[in-house]
Specification:
Oligomer: heterodimer
CATH topology of the largest domain in chain B: MetI-like fold
Number of helices of chain B: 15
Order of helices and strands of chain B: HHHHHHHHHHHHHHH
Strand content of chain B: under 5%
Distance between the termini of chain B: 69 Å
CATH superfamily of the largest domain in chain B: MetI-like
Largest interface: A-B, 109 and 105 residues
Radius of gyration of chain B: 28 Å
Number of strands of chain B: 0
CATH architecture of the largest domain in chain A: Orthogonal Bundle
Number of strands of chain A: 2
Strand order of the largest sheet of chain A: 1-2
Largest sheet of chain B: none
Helix content of chain B: over 70%
Radius of gyration of chain A: 27 Å
CATH superfamily of the largest domain in chain A: MetI-like
Largest sheet of chain A: 2 strands, antiparallel
Number of domains of chain A: 2
CATH class of the largest domain in chain A: Mainly Alpha
Structural class of chain A: mainly alpha
Low-confidence stretches of chain B: none
Shape of chain B: flat
CATH topology of the largest domain in chain A: MetI-like fold
Order of helices and strands of chain A: HHHEEHHHHHHHHHHHH
Strand content of chain A: under 5%
Mean pLDDT of chain A: 86
């Protein structure tokens, strides 16, 4: 926003002059007098229509219609190949909601989303609080922490697959070097999901550090100075000034990262494929497998709508929380 | 007198410690150290990956582990380039990502301008209608979208990758936010001078929006380069795989050959790294904006 303001300031004078020059050659000066208010308005409306109509068509065709069709699919026993399509009503929904595997999948997904979100929020906040007072080199730190975020999740999964390798992976090698027992990481049902959560927090941290940093920079220094005068320690300052004033950002980060973590796919697809023993089987992976491996797209669609329902509920929660924040 | 010296000497020592501690606190040394430790954790795995990619299989399995190989070799990279048609994959991924990025940024800026600076009936309804599509998880509409693609005989084509991404609701939202700041007088003056609306957009609005255009372009290019699920579904011919999908299939086939997988991963992340180094200011700016809605 600041950069744009600066830009307009700089360019305004020179721009109007330069613009006037371009008009000399492209327009008949007589025409300029003939354009009255209503023709300008009509020109505007034509422009608006030209822009808006394709966009509306696009969203109708590629978003709203498919959602409707997906709902229609979820009421059928529909295969990807072949033309048999039988209407079964809510049978798909009944089947998946009573299926213990699907329950486990929902559990896994919620566990992942909640743990990753909380882990991200706490660690990103801690890093941002540490980073805030530093002026020189702050950008370099932000860059370094952002590095995993901009790397393809598949590439990151490849790296961590190697890190987590029980015999030759770096983590276990380091543990052995300091005489600690090596971990089972991706090979054991009890540690597989936490391993995925850990690497997901690592991979998303930098993004939220930047957001928290921006929020921290918005807190007026005046508050901290007043607290220092009153003799508050650094921890007291953080507890009574920083965190309360950051509450909107914290809730934003929490809910956004939960919603974003809900369709986790790439890490699990590459690293565990859902195992061991379904401990990492998450919703997006199961939908993909059901639709494109088992070819049961009716059932997959019903699972997708269950996912949609949860995400919608979380989004509404976020909107409600923001309204509550704005009203206080 | 000697008692006084015994009292003053320790006092001076404590005074020195207090001055040192104050210097440390003022220059935030503890922060720096902790952050540096965290930075090592962030960058370490990448260095480890890079080092492993140059190791022979024997050295990969050595204990104690070495960060940098004692006998570096290029055999892993040779095998990767052999296995995947890497150059073509690079071009394909870059081309698709670029086209998608240009489309989404251009349409986003155009529509953002329209929503910010024009008034027409149904404007808010349409705008919030667009926004509401952001809530829909991709998994919900990916299956019907795939059926559409197959019906249109566009299976396994890059067209099928690009068409569902011509418009982006998020881009429209962000650009609208920024277009509010453009002074109306500028636009009105141009209209009075007889400029057409497209002329105004291309000759005035776009040049004024260079910072946000750069930011969004780098952000979207990075995002599209790493896109995985839709290319996985659509492209079934291994020769046409995009980079993330190609990497995933390579890792799937060579789970235990870590020299090869790390070499492939190193190659895959290189371009985004380079672009990021050039555009980092803009990318960070775009992320910071996300939290300031």
């Amino acid at each position: 926003m600041g950069a744009l303001g600066r830009c307009t300031h700089q360019l305004r004078h020179g721009l109007v002059k330069a613009f006037a020059m371009t008009q000399v050659n492209t327009l008949n000066p007589v025409r300029g007098n003939r354009r009255n208010r209503s023709s300008v308005r009509r020109g505007q409306l034509k422009f608006v229509a030209f822009c808006i109509i394709p966009a509306v068509a696009f969203f109708l065709v590629f978003r709203f219609y498919p959602v409707g069709q997906a709902f229609w699919m979820s009421l059928h026993d529909w295969r990807l190949i072949g033309s048999n399509r039988t209407f079964v009503g809510t049978q798909n929904y009944q089947e998946i909601l009573t299926d213990p595997l699907f329950r486990k999948i929902l559990q896994n997904t919620l566990y992942f989303a909640a743990a990753t979100s909380i882990g991200l929020t706490i660690s990103a906040l801690a890093v941002a609080i540490l980073l805030n007072p530093i002026r020189r080199g702050s950008t370099i730190f932000q860059l370094v922490y952002f590095l995993p975020v901009m790397t393809s999740t598949i590439a990151i999964s490849t790296i961590w697959l190697w890190l987590y390798q029980p015999q030759f992976g770096l983590i276990n090698q380091l543990l052995r070097a300091i005489n600690m027992p090596p971990g089972t990481w991706l090979t054991s049902p009890s540690t597989a999901m936490p391993s995925i959560i850990l690497m997901s927090v690592w991979g998303g941290l930098g993004f939220y550090v930047i957001i928290f940093l921006a929020g921290l920079r918005n807190i007026p220094a005046m508050y901290y100075e007043a607290a220092a005068i009153d003799g508050a320690s650094r921890y007291q300052a953080i507890r009574y000034i920083t965190i309360p004033l950051l509450r909107p950002v914290i809730t934003f980060v929490l809910v956004t990262s939960v919603i974003g973590s809900f369709n986790v796919f790439q890490q699990v697809y590459l690293m565990t494929g859902g195992g061991p023993l379904n401990s990492t089987r998450v919703l997006a992976l199961h939908i993909y497998n059901t639709a494109f491996r088992n070819l049961e797209i009716g059932k997959a669609a019903s699972m997708a709508f269950v996912m949609f329902a949860v995400v919608l509920a979380l989004t509404l929660l976020q909107m409600w929380l923001r309204k509550a924040d704005n009203d206080t | 007198m000697s008692e006084l010296v015994n009292v003053v000497k320790p006092a001076v020592r404590y005074e020195f410690l207090a001055v040192a501690a104050n210097w440390l606190r003022r220059h935030h040394v503890i922060n720096f150290v902790l952050l540096a430790l965290g930075a090592v954790i962030m960058v370490g795995p990448f260095l480890w990956m890079l080092g492993t990619s140059f190791k022979t299989p024997q050295e990969t399995a050595s204990f104690p582990p070495t960060i940098w190989p004692v006998n570096p070799t290029l055999e892993n990279y040779v095998e990767v380039v052999d296995r995947l048609d890497l150059v073509r994959m690079y071009f394909n991924t870059a081309g698709v990502a670029l086209i998608k990025t240009v489309l989404m940024v251009y349409t986003g800026s155009l529509l953002g301008y329209v929503f910010a600076k024009f008034h027409f009936r149904g404007k808010n309804l349409i705008f919030y209608g667009f926004l509401s599509t952001m809530i829909i998880p991709f998994e919900v509409y990916m299956i019907p979208l795939y059926l559409m693609i197959v019906d249109a005989k566009l299976g396994n084509t890059y067209t099928a990758l690009i068409i569902p991404s011509i418009f982006s609701a998020y881009a429209i939202f962000v650009f609208r936010q920024f277009m509010f700041a453009i002074p109306n007088e500028l636009i009105d003056a141009a209209r009075v001078d007889g400029a057409g609306e497209f002329h105004i957009f291309h000759r005035i609005i776009l040049p004024l929006s260079k910072p946000i255009l750069a930011t969004m372009t780098s952000f979207y290019f990075m995002w599209e380069w790493n896109d995985f699920l839709w290319p996985l579904i659509v492209i079934t011919d291994p020769n046409k795989y995009l980079l993330p999908v190609g990497l995933a299939s390579l890792v799937g086939e060579n789970r235990t050959d870590f020299g090869v997988t790390t070499a492939a991963a190193s190659i895959a992340i290189l371009p985004v790294l380079v672009i990021f180094l050039f555009m980092q200011r803009h990318v960070i700016q775009s992320v910071a904006m996300t939290g300031m809605k």
